[in-house]
Structures are given as structure tokens and as C-alpha cells.
Amino acid sequence: MASSLTKDSVSPGTPGSEKTFFGHPRGLATLFMTEMWERFSYYGMRALLPLYLVAPGGLGLSAGTATAIYSVYLSLVYLLTMPGGWFGDRVWGPRKTVAVAGGIIMLGHLTLALPSSGTFYAGLGLVAIGSGLLKANISTMVGQLYQGPDDPRRDGGFTVFYMGINLGAFAAPLIIGTIGESVNWHLGFALAAVGMGLGVTQFLLGSRHLDPASSVVPKPLTHQERASTLRKAALWAGIAVVAYAALGLSGNYTLNWVLVPLTLLGVIVPVMVIARIKRDKDLDRAEQSKMSAYIWFFVAAAIFWMIYDQGGSTLSIFADSSAENSVFGWEFPVSWYQSVNPVLIMALAPVFAWIWLALNRRGKEPSTIVKFASGLVLVGVSFFLFLAPLSIAEGGHKAAALWLVAIYFTQTVGELLLSPVGLSVTTKMAPAKYASQMMGVWFLAVTAGDATTGLLSIAGVDLNKTGVVAMEATLAVLAGVAVWMYRKKVKALMGDVR
């Protein structure tokens, strides 16, 4: 990345004399590399996780239990972004929170690398906690590099940052996945720790280029608030320790005693947060109306992510057991499928951006609601496509790899229609009182979707059965059609937001 840094040949202190990163503040390089290495470690571990859980040389669990663990883990990562943002705002400030988060993630991957099922689950918990802390705060620091929302470089800076996410996500399955599957599972998890270690090291070395505001705690806790928070945390931690100690000593403890409460939490918390905001009497009539419209987007997004995130669990486990994972006779590791989405994102995102601009100039760009509905329909279509390889496998044959690539392609196009729009509409429709919290609310849609998948798996539903897949596909398509049919009502509720 050093070759992309330039320095104008003018005297120090002169505007334009500072080093830049593709024309952006030098601090963007620090955050770009931090996020790239964090995503490298996260997606590398994620690609290995369901395969390790079902492998005879791994934990040897059933596909249903593996899917439940995977789904609960993902839902926790996104659920913890809200307390992660709270820590950055009230306790440590964004810079310190990200540094600590990176250390927790690295420790989590090292714990995963230990050959013990007990420490494995502790490692998953550490990675989830660290990811929640980091995810909520690193984007805040990107925004702090620019002079307010009207800085013309701001959108481009977030685009460059987004490329770091996808570069890390693309490379991880190819490297960590190959080592984990072909050499040793735990060596793969250790390699994820190395990646995060590199990210933390360069973050600490390059943090001098970040905006000074990143070290400031925006709204520090008062002494009374700090004491109250510690008391409540100690109380809940004590209750959990006593309850699980009693279960263990009585001999009644099973994995479901952890999975079920965490999964229910992933469904209940999003509902409670949305309900609390909706009932807030401080919101004026226009804000209340926008929140009513936002509920449509939230529920639809939860359905979308419920299906989309099964690309790393249901589809991956299917590929491991029932797909011909080869191209022209050349076999590749199953984890490589997880690189399909990020490479398609990098290839297609600029194309979509160009298409929207071209249509906008002609006054024909689809509305937010139409884009959202289309994304939902496409994720449903991806699971209708999934019915073909499932039928082939049920006939006793191996399904071709291209079937899975087609599914990931369809889901990626759906993501490009729904995800950026969802992020945008969340910021536009956020009540003033909850402006800084609403991005966390958007992530709760992912939590709700993944937690629903977890609940289905815990309940014994086989997500690799044609009937279940067809039902999920139908649900997504019907949800997309419903959003489109009621678009005028939703548009009216949105008020001045377009």
C-alpha cells in the first residue's frame, strides 16, 4: 500500500502538503488496513467454522447443531455492535475501543486454535465480543477523518474503506480455508489470529494519523452511571455463573442451555429496541410515521439476512457433503465458496453505482422501496435455485459447483440492491433523538434473521430439505411482493425521505 501514498512537493504546513491515501487523509490507510486484516481473520474463521463443526476430525456435530451454533455466533456479532458503540461513546472512545477489540479478537482466534471443545466455544465468544466492539467504532473513525458530512471526499473514503472489507473477505477463505481444510483445522484458526495481530500492530503504529477526536470519549459516564452500570453487570454475571454452575453440578447441562437463551435474546432484543423507540413520546408525528415505515424495512431485512447468511452454513455444509467441488477436474476446498461473494461485490458494486447514476439522470432510478423489494425477491429466487442441486443430491448424484456459484451470484445482486439502500434509509429515517443509535438498530435486523435460523435448527428443522428451502424461498418472494404492493403506503409514511 506504500506506493499509493503521495506527498506534494510543497513546504510543510501548506494545504495539500500532507500525505494522502488515494487522495484521502493518511489515516484512511490505517483504518483500511485494520479493517482488511480484521475481515481477513473474521471471514477466514467463518469459512472454516461450519465445516469444522461437522467434520469427523473436528467436533463431529450434526448439521443442525452446527447451523445453530454458526447462526447464534453471527447473531451475537451483530447484537454486540450496540453495546460496542456504547463503549466507544461512553467509556473508552473509538480509538481505544478498536485497539482493545483487536486484542480480544486475536485472543479469541488463539483460543479457537487450542484442540479442546471447551476452549473452542470460549474462543467463539471472544471473537464475537471483539467484533462487536470493533465494528461499531471503526466506521465512526473513518467519518472523523473528513470535515463534516458535506466534505466531497467523504463518500469516496467510505467506498475505499468498503474495498478493504471485501479484500480481506476475499483472501481469507483462499488462505485460511485452504490451510484449515487441507493441513490442520487449528492451524487455520491460528492463522486467523496472525491476521488480526498484523491488523492490531499496524493500527497502533498508524494511529498517529487518525483524527484527534477518535481518542475523545464523546459522552463519558458520570461517577454515578459508572457505579450503576458495574453493579448491574456484576449482578447479571453472577446470576449466569450461579445458574450454569448449578446445571453443571446437577448433570443436566447441555449445549442447548447456552444456544437457546442466546438465540431467544437475538429475537427478543431487536423487537424490544424497535418497540421502545416507537413508543417514545418525545418523537414528533413525522418521526413516528417514519418509524412505522422503518418497521417494514426492518422485518423485510431480517427475512433477507435469514436466507443470505445461510450461504456460510446451510450451503457450505451441503457443498461439503453433496457437491462436486471441482472445475475442469481440479478440486478446490469447500471454504473457497465463501470468496465468491466478496469478489462479486468488488466487481459489481461499481457497475450498480454507474447504473443508478445513469438512470437518475434520466429520472428513471427505482425508488428505495422498489430496490428493497427486488433484493428480497432475488434472495428468494436464490433458494428456488437451491432446489435444483438438492434434487440432484437426493437422486444420489453430486451437484455441480456452478449451481452453488449461481446461488451466491443471485444473493450478491440481491445484497447490492438491499444492503446499501438499507444503510441509507436507516440514516435518513432516524429520529433526531436516536441518530447515533439507528445504525446499531439496522444491524439488529441481521441479528433477528440469524437468530431465527438458529431457532429453526435447534427445533430440529433440517434446513437442507427441499420443503424447508422452498418455504423460505416463498417467504422471501412474498415479502418482496408485499413491500412492492404496499409501496404507496410505505412511501406516505416515509414523509420527506426518498
Summed up:
By secondary structure, the protein is an all-alpha fold.
SSE blueprint:
Elements: E1 5-6, E2 20-21, E3 24-25, H1 27-54, H2 63-79, H3 81-90, H4 94-112, H5 117-144, H6 154-182, H7 185-206, H8 223-250, H9 256-279, H10 285-308, H11 314-322, E4 323-324, E5 326-327, E6 330-331, H12 340-361, H13 368-394, E7 399-400, H14 401-429, H15 438-458, H16 466-485, H17 487-494
Parallel strand pairs: 4-7
Antiparallel strand pairs: 1-2, 2-3, 5-6
Helix pairs in contact: 1-2, 1-5, 1-6, 1-7, 2-5, 2-9, 2-15, 3-4, 3-5, 4-5, 4-7, 6-7, 6-12, 9-15, 10-13, 10-14, 10-15, 10-16, 10-17, 12-14, 13-14, 13-16, 14-15
Describe this structure as you would to a colleague:
By secondary structure, the chain is mostly helical. It folds into three domains: 21-220, Growth Hormone, Chain: A, CATH 1.20.1250.20; 225-254; 267-498, Up-down Bundle (Growth Hormone, Chain: A), CATH 1.20.1250.20. It is built from 17 helices and seven strands. Strands 1-2-3 form a three-stranded antiparallel beta sheet, with helices on one face. It has a two-stranded parallel ribbon with strand order 4-7. Strands 5-6 form a two-stranded antiparallel sheet. A hairpin with a 2-residue loop joins strand 5 (326-327) and strand 6. It is globular. The two termini are 38 Å apart. 46% of the residues are buried. Mean pLDDT is 89; it is low at 1-17.
Number-wise, the strands total 7
CATH topology of the largest domain: Growth Hormone, Chain: A
Main sheet: which strands, in order across? 1-2-3
Estimate the mean pLDDT confidence: 89
Number of helices: 17
CATH level 4 superfamily of the largest domain: MFS general substrate transporter like domains
Report the top-level CATH class of the largest domain. Answer: Mainly Alpha
Largest sheet: 3 strands, antiparallel
Return Rg in Å: 23 Å
Query: Stretches where pLDDT falls below 50 for ≥5 residues?
Result: 1-17
Q: Any guess at the CATH architecture of the largest domain?
A: Up-down Bundle
Order of helices and strands: EEEHHHHHHHHHHHEEEHHEHHHH
Strand residue content: under 5%
GO molecular function, one term: tripeptide transmembrane transporter activity
Keywords: Cell membrane, Membrane, Transmembrane, Transmembrane helix, Transport
Protein name: MFS transporter
Transmembrane segments: 43-62, 68-86, 98-114, 120-138, 159-179, 185-205, 257-277, 289-308, 336-357, 369-388, 400-418, 439-461, 467-486
